[in-house]
Amino acid sequence: MPEAQVKMNVRRVGENASIIDVEGDLTAFAETVLMDAYNQASDGQARAIILNFEDMEYMNSSGIGLLVTLLIRINREKQRLLTYGLSEHYRSIFQITRLDDAIAIHDSEEEAVRAANSA
Amino acid sequence: MTEQTPQEEPKQKREPRDAAYWASYAETLKVTGVADGATNINVEGRRAVGPLQGFGKMWQKTYRVGLEGAEVTPAEVIKTWKENYQEFWPEGNRFYAPLAGITPGEVALISGSLPGGVKLSTGVMVLYADDESFSLMTPEGHPFSGWITFSSFEEGGTVIAQAQVLMRANDPLYEMGLRMGGHKMENEMWRQTLENVATHFGVDEPVETNIVCVDPKLQWSQYRNIWHNAGIRSALYMMTAPFRSRGKGSER
To answer: Which residues of chain B are within 8 Å of residue A28 when distances are taken between CB atoms?
Structure first.
């Protein structure tokens, strides 16, 4: 399979949450990178995982599929999945695919972190 | 004097590279043009549903075949697949391609066969389509809630043709049907489709199947999806056909 054109950086924000900064293309080839980032972000303690899409440049339907499987895994671990940094275009894709039914979308990092720590 | 805070440089927002490949958001599906033989009773006005909205266990099923020795590019495979979608389907099912072809946002009607001779009328929306992949998303009432992605890519010098389904059964009745042989039928259908794609390119290679249960939980909150069950509605539509034609006759 072609190499993933994506980088993911994991940051811890407070005791309960971690942020994964998604930079580049979210496609099927990003699976290993995303799951590694999730494992690092979870670290046995994080109760909320926040995906930062500010620097996402491209996403296809396999990328959306990856988010679905990540969400199921996060739910199984009794964690929460939140996002911020989605452009209007990607917000619309979350609406079409109805991911917005299950993933909280926030306008900024501050708002997402506050929501992650509120429950 | 008022204190001024340094203003951040606004990020250059370019049009995303995928912008043209996705369907636009619409609350409900709209069918433009119904082909002869197609029935639009379970698609128009329905919402598209993803794997999160279904009832049954969530499955990811991958069917793939290596086009060993075929002189084709992934883009040529997908172009051919889009143009011949119906021809690659096994007999007994009919895909009425949208007039505009497999392009984002278009809706196709489907006629399938259910046990007992019932003709299932449903459809799919083209969720995403680029040069090397396309995805079809199901409407409410379809046996599955989710999408299927057809793609082609190179792996170790061989072009691969792949279909990957991410779905749940839409309601309890469909979930029961899947457990009582439906999965087997579905697997066979996609295996045969991939085989037909390979045959088209002169390749005789086995189709590999990989099935993963992503979520074994049933979503009981979604049991009401049965209201839209296209199988039940198609059966009722068939049963009431004589009354409809009698009604039309008396109107004359």
So the answer is: 151
Q: Are strands B48-49 and B118-129 parallel, antiparallel or unpaired?
A: unpaired
Domain that holds residue A76: 6-118
Q: How many domains does chain A have?
A: 1
Question: Which has the closest alpha carbon to B38: B121, B143, B100?
Answer: B121
**pLDDT tens figures, B177-201:** 999 999 999 999 999 999 999 999 9
- Are B60 and A65 in contact (CB < 8 Å)? yes
Which residues does chain A have within 8 Å of residue B58's beta carbon, measured at their own beta carbons?
Answer: 72
> What pTM does this model have?
0.91
Asked whether this complex has an ipTM greater than 0.85, the answer is yes
Contact A98 B23 (CB under 8 A): no
A61 inside domain: yes
Q: Which of A88, A108, A118, A93 lies closest to B23 in space, CA to CA? A: A93
Establish if A104 touches chain B: CB-CB under 8 angstroms. no
Instruction: Report the C-alpha gap between B49 and B61 in whole angstroms.
Output: 18
Q: For domain B21-217, give the CATH superfamily.
A: START domain (3.30.530.20)
| Surface-to-core class of residue B11, CB atoms within 10 Å of its CB (0-12 exposed, 13-18 middle, 19+ buried) | exposed
CA of B214: how far to CAs of B18, B174, B204, B208, in Å?
A: 27, 18, 31, 19
| Alpha carbons B66 and B156: distance in angstroms, whole number | 10
Question: Cβ(A105)–Cβ(A84) under 8 Å?
Answer: yes
Please check whether residue A1 lies inside any domain of the structure.
Answer: no
Q: Could you give the CA distance from residue B44 to residue B220 in angstroms, rounded to a whole number?
A: 26
CA distance A68 to chain B (A): 8
